[in-house]
Design brief:
heterodimer, A: about 180 residues, mainly beta, 10 strands, globular, B: about 130 residues, alpha+beta, STM4215-like, six-stranded mixed β-sheet, two-stranded antiparallel ribbon, about 20% helix, elongated
């Protein structure tokens, strides 16, 4: 049985975020909006500087939700209910360790990395994302889409002296499934 | 860590119980703390690194630096400032010159042998690595 390997250096899960308005085609992000090149040897991605992406580090887990709705009805000529799926609720949820640079941003008035995760959420700015379940080396399946950041709740405790926060991307519409091509 | 502890203890243990700058080695088959009672000896620090939080890219690691020490005093004739010396030993874990730890611990055990009571103590400093 094959499986999605997310444990090696080149296959680690990655989550890229840019402002939707900075995508080449807002609403339909492409791979090059997030990174221009990837090393197949190390798995490291060269970020697309012009789009100012955030590569969210310190992810402790990630859940890709694609929850279809359903409509059920009963017919007199059938013993069981009939069903059809309706529009899906798509969300991407994760927990991450806060890095001040990515959380609070590195500047102001620019792209996603300059604004930081908190401002993107607080200002309800539509984002475009790319989540790579097994890294972004060549020929890996990634999911892209647009949405809004929510559910931030940074927490620190005596036993866990680094800030940890959940994050949810409320996906706007469908996921875009794509095979990576920029790695060499 | 050892240097900071030595500096704090040297400045505060000024009664009959003092601090030695030497490591607690053995000389002529006898441990220094038994040969020189009423002297606090601190060992070289040891470190232990473990995972505090696992992440996909770089784990958050916890480093525990341990400094052990020893003090022997006469069990038959208790030093009058022994209690205050033990308070100072415990307070040394919070010396302000150790700044990067998020949890500081101190504990000790005692053992009496041949009229000598030996306090074996340990400082543990937890920090993010």
């Amino acid at each position: 049985m094959a499986f999605i390997n997310a444990s090696t250096a080149v296959n680690r899960v990655k989550l890229f975020i840019i402002k939707n308005s900075q995508a080449a085609t807002p609403g339909t992000p492409i791979e090059a909006d997030f990174y221009t090149a990837v090393s197949n040897t190390t798995g490291a991605a060269t970020l697309t500087t012009a789009k100012d992406p955030i590569l969210l580090g310190g992810l402790t887990d990630i859940t890709i939700n694609n929850s279809n709705g359903s409509y059920r009805w009963k017919q007199l000529d059938q013993s069981g209910e009939s069903v059809i799926t309706t529009n899906a609720t798509n969300t991407l949820s994760s927990n991450f360790v806060l890095d001040p640079a990515t959380f609070f941003g590195t500047g102001a008035g620019g792209g996603a990395a300059q604004d930081g995760i908190f401002k993107l959420s607080n200002d309800r700015i539509q984002i475009a994302f790319l989540v790579a379940p097994s890294g972004v080396i060549d020929d890996q399946t990634v999911l892209m889409g647009t949405g809004f950041i929510s559910a931030l709740a940074p927490t620190v405790s005596a036993d866990s002296p680094v800030f940890l926060s959940p994050i949810t991307i409320e996906v706007n519409g469908d996921y875009i499934r794509y095979k990576t091509t920029l790695a060499t | 860590m050892r240097t900071a502890l030595l500096a704090y203890l040297t400045a505060n243990l000024t009664g009959t119980i003092r601090v030695s700058q030497e490591l607690p080695y053995e000389e002529g088959g006898a441990a220094l703390n038994l040969k020189n009672p009423r002297r606090v000896y601190l060992n070289e620090p040891t470190t232990e690194v473990s995972q505090l939080l696992g992440t996909f890219d770089s784990d958050i690691l916890e480093k525990i630096t341990t400094v052990s020490g020893v003090l022997s005093v006469d069990a038959k004739q208790r030093n009058t400032d022994l209690d205050s010396a033990l308070v100072i030993l415990a307070a040394a874990k919070n010396t302000t010159t150790i700044t990067n730890s998020f949890r500081n611990e101190f504990d000790y055990t005692t053992e009496i042998d041949a009229g000598i009571i030996t306090y074996t103590f340990e400082y543990r400093f937890h920090s993010i690595d």
